[in-house]
Amino acid sequence: MTAIPEMVALFNGFGGLATFLIAWSQFNEPDNSMFQHVLVMLTIYIGGITFSGSLIAYGKLSEKLKLGKGSMITNVFISFFYLSMPALIYVVIEPSLAGFVPQVPSYFSLFLVLTLMAGIGFVMPIGGGDMPVVISLLNSLSGIAAAFAGLLLLNNVLIVAGSLVGASGLILTIIMAKAMNRTITNILFVGYASSAQAASSEEQGEVKPITSDDAYLILENASSVLVVPGYGMAVAQAQHVVREMGELLEDNGTEVKYGIHPVAGRMPGHMNVLLAEANVSYDLLAEPDDVNPSMDTIDVAIVIGANDVVNPSATEEEGSPIYGMPIIEVHNAKTVFVLKRSMSSGFAGVQNPLFFRENTRMLFGDAKESIGQIVAEFKD
Amino acid sequence: MENLANIQVIQNMIYIISSVMFILGIKMLGKEATAVKGNYLSALAMFFAVAITCLSLEIDIKIILAGVLLGGLIGSLIAVKVK
Description:
The complex is a heterodimer.
Chain A: H1 4-27, H2 34-61, H3 72-97, H4 107-123, H5 131-153, H6 156-179, H7 184-190, H8 212-221, E1 224-229, H9 231-236, H10 239-251, E2 255-259, H11 270-277, E3 285-286, H12 288-291, E4 300-304, H13 313-316, E5 335-340, E6 360-364, H14 367-379
Parallel strand pairs in A: 1-2, 1-4, 2-3, 4-5, 5-6
Helix pairs in contact in A: 1-2, 1-5, 2-3, 2-4, 2-5, 3-4, 5-6, 8-14, 10-14
Chain B: H1 2-29, H2 35-55, H3 61-81
Helix pairs in contact in B: 1-2
């Protein structure tokens, strides 16, 4: 289930490629009206950007592509992106320019190449925790391109389906941007890394490790437990043991809830998909706004492979790159267990002061094994 | 000629039905309890839409089938292989 975001990115890309090719073939039709000409160019632009952008998103998510913001190659591609916008205006008005300015020979082929380069430059500088938002935006773009292709081919159902995908993708993008307390332009053109220098005041201290035996003893006496999953649960494939532990806790008279942050994981709804796969009841899932007000009544918050969405510096440390992002405030719970493989920072590359808190216990190791041991203790 | 006009009417009616199914499907995706069903509903709607479009095209059905087979094979391979 960890590779699903990559697969979604790839499928979006194929959708973009299909519309790109449709528009290309329509360009070669003999009697195009002005309306069709504009439509062809817009479809090629959006479809092309979706295709190459999705390929880059795929590479970034599968960690095959390590280039990020600031590298020379990225900057070259970003210039292609900015260059592509005046180029789009030029190719759109090109037929009406005939006779006024000298024509650029084979401008159409140049435009095809430029859009593909522009898509690379569009996604390349975006990284880290912003990736789910980009996937959702590319999904929306592929829908818009399909709707344009529907107009070109005069196919009603393609227009309807494309508009639906485009609109719902856009709504989802806005919801996710709001969940990170940032605007879409900020995510696309400013990015995380630009403010990262300010976060040098890293909090350090002792971390308190705990064994799963001790964790079991605490959990057995807890009356309310909140599970906060993240990408790490997907990596460890721990969703089934998590559900098993939740059921055992409930049998023990403990109230169990799952706190799902909208941008936990690497695609929209990643955690919901995982927990649904493990048959966790939907009523147990709660959003940050539902759990945060009553956080101090929760005995144990179990953070499974989540990092940035529970980072208290988002609310406390001004100047942190993720400052202002609403989080699940597990640090207000009486005890916090953090299941983690090592002390590395999250996908956003920000150190997490939660690990050094008084009430935090670190349970190092593979999440599936750790929880498996707790489950085994419960069964004894 | 009359036959062709008939197909046009049927095609557009199926398009409308598919569109309604898309919207219902997306609405169902919004709730976790019905999300899986909603996904199937939208997929079914897309199947109807694609099928009726293929029937009214003047392209050799063999070429279309070859495309469907190839695309379906690649898609299912990726979906099965995904971790």
